[in-house]
């Protein structure tokens, strides 16, 4: 048995809105993951889809359980903080690993490390002590 029938109409509408927004943003992330061609293009979409999509669903969960239990339920805030911190970091590390792999294999579409540093090729190295 669920207690969702006891949920007031305003809370049902607000929670439904956040669930739909979260599901829509997650769907956009999934479609973007399928349609973008390059790994480097695809790496941004899951971060946004999972973080913002889960955020909408977690807001709905906070509303539903806070209203049903007549007290603030903040367990979902810990989940949101964990997702917000870990997901971008994980995908950034995946991107760096892919970039390292592509540079090691000599893929032409990836700029070499010297081109990224912004220093001219004949500039003295600061680690020389000169």
UniProtKB/TrEMBL annotation:
<keyword id="KW-0472">Membrane</keyword>
<feature type="transmembrane region" description="Helical">
    <location>
        <begin position="12"/>
        <end position="36"/>
    </location>
</feature>
<dbReference type="InterPro" id="IPR005133">
    <property type="entry name" value="PhaG_MnhG_YufB"/>
</dbReference>
<keyword id="KW-0812">Transmembrane</keyword>
<dbReference type="Pfam" id="PF03334">
    <property type="entry name" value="PhaG_MnhG_YufB"/>
</dbReference>
<keyword id="KW-1133">Transmembrane helix</keyword>
<feature type="transmembrane region" description="Helical">
    <location>
        <begin position="48"/>
        <end position="68"/>
    </location>
</feature>
<protein>
    <submittedName>
        <fullName>Cation:proton antiporter</fullName>
    </submittedName>
</protein>
<feature type="transmembrane region" description="Helical">
    <location>
        <begin position="74"/>
        <end position="94"/>
    </location>
</feature>
<dbReference type="GO" id="GO:0015385">
    <property type="term" value="F:sodium:proton antiporter activity"/>
</dbReference>
